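Predict the structure of YbhB/YbcL family Raf kinase inhibitor-like protein.
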Amino acid sequence: MRSYRELVGSVFMRSSANGAALLACVFAAGLAAGAGRAAAQGAFSLTSTDLKDGAAFGKAQVYDRNDCTGRNVSPELSWRNAPAGTKSFAVTVFDIDAPGPGWWHWAVAAIPPSVTALPANASASGYLTKIGAVQARNDWGDEGYGGPCPPPGKLHRYVVTVFALNTADLRLGPGRHALMFDHEINTAALAKASLTVTYQR
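Done. Here is the predicted structure for YbhB/YbcL family Raf kinase inhibitor-like protein.
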């Protein structure tokens, strides 16, 4: 016969094993629920009614000077599934095929976290100023959006990116160069989503 001490020890060991198993099950269920919520939420993403990933810019978004005859209208952009902790958004448009370091066409910061879309022509219409956003000086030398107008011949790719940022104050003033915007935006980025659009003359 086992002693009283042996019986108590046996019961304790079974209880401990059952408790550990229960805790493991609860922990696993919690991880699965968290993963399920993340999957349901989806990744931070960017869409546009004016632009299609891999396709060419429409005439409306093309620059309206330097022998280009577009309308220079900034594109409609929409985004979803911003990460937790997002305090503002920023948008950039950059030509990665321009000679040298590339060409900045647009940079916008301080878009409020409640805003998840920019209407077409947000740059020139006054919409961005109304919501408190600030626009950089692009490489055309203008504040705001300046559409594509590359030299004739080569196809150029333009990366359109929305950033979710961990701050609402990048301390950027309107009219500062887009390169300065880019540096501050990337320093505060929690996530980003992009479309690549083309144009050729």
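The CA atoms of residues 108 and 145 lie 9 Å apart.
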